[in-house]
Amino acid sequence: MTYPVQSAGGTVFGTIPSPAYTGVFIPELWSGKIIEKFYDATVLAAIANTDYEGEITSFGDKVTIRTKPSIAINNYLAYDSLVTETPSSSVVELLIDQGKYWSTVLDDVMEVQSDLDHLSMWADDASEQMKIVIDTDVLAGISADVAAENQGATAGVLSGDLDMGVAASPFSVDSTNAIDKIIEAGQVLDEQNIPETGRWFVIPAWMSSLIKRSELRDASLTGDGVSMLRNGRLGMIDRFTLYASNLLPFSSTDSAHSMFFGHSHGLTFASQLTKVETLRAESTFGTILRGLQVFGFKVVDGTAIGIFYGTKA
Question: How far apart (Å, rounded) are the C-alpha atoms in residues 39 and 42?
Fold first, then answer.
């Protein structure tokens, strides 16, 4: 805005001063507060175990995970010779083969003249952005190792008749069947003998809204003192803790999301922020602040993870 305020025919208070006030006598004021920035919610910490995170130190590390052997049970007959086996178990390799970095430079002049701690502000933002990028990569990369019986139009290792949706034919979800699909996902895990405690289900925002509009909006049906519409929390449905995420893989062709459900036993994740350093810039007078985070993830038990491929009706 120009000061003093001028009318179409001239100034409000007499003639225009020379030199003009604007930019000369009236200083430009900058707020000391920064507009708050909001980030996508991340779910990786809630759905994956980090049992092997303390064993990595740098990019390229490999963690060999041992598994329990399966012992054969045989029929016994009197005086029959026993069949003795030597149990053996396979190993799963967790490769720390992915890395993300950020690098910023703060000019010395800007650092002196600014009243903000730019490096600290940038580091905070980089931390949040790092979580979002890693969450997105992991959610996009786990589908290949999910058990075939835990996905598709014939899911269910025993039943084989649970429609979890497939590419080109996603399941159409509305407020009347959203709860049914969560219950069927629970059956998928039940048939794989997955523990009931510790189960999770990651859904997009639109399915979260459908659930809140379903019959569960009645507090008496959920057993809660306050309905979902009042507290805004989805909580637990059929032994699943529900998490809403905007980072799930999305197919623009089918207008459908790949939604994952399972148990933290099935997915392991390991990450280390291996480098955070400041150094002087070579090509300018400034300070460089940069960080490197290495990570790896692995579906160690595909029977403990499932996929529901759905679209909004």
Answer: 9
